[in-house]
Amino acid sequence: MTPAVLFLFAPAGGQADGKVMGAFVVQMVLIIGIVYFLLIRPKVQQEKKHRDRLSELKTKDEVLTVGGILGEVIHIKDDRITIKSGESRLVIQRDRISEIRSSGSGEGAQAS
Predict the structure, then answer these.
(1) Are residues 51 and 65 in the same domain?
(2) To 10 degrees, the CA torsion angle through 53, 58, 59, 61?
(3) Is the pTM higher than 0.90?
(4) Which domain holds residue 67?
(5) Which one-letter DSSP state was computed for residue 22?
(6) What is the pLDDT along the chain (112 residues), one digit of tens a residue?
(7) Looking at the structure, do residues 48 and 67 belong to the same domain, yes or no?
(8) Residue 88: CA atoms inside 13 Å, Cβ hemisphere, count?
């Protein structure tokens, strides 16, 4: 559309400008609210829940790393975790764990 055509859709007169601007502000607030509650808030809650599960990590838990390695936790020290995968042992950072598959106490699988 050319700028000349856009003037045809503009509201006429100066009396309705306040009402139009008020309606526009209300619409923008509603759109921002919907985006927050549908996209941003669930993601923040999911990340908080994941951080809480990582802080409760213990030995004998089965974990999946970001790189796709599945292993059992054998040692935890600060932010470093040693896992056993097959016949090898790997030292990874705690935040590189994408999900905790199962607990060593036999509780079953935990959803991520």
Answers:
(1) no
(2) -30
(3) no
(4) 58-102
(5) H
(6) 566 665 556 666 555 566 788 888 899 999 999 999 999 999 999 999 999 999 999 999 999 999 999 999 999 998 999 999 999 999 999 999 999 987 765 444 444 4
(7) no
(8) 5
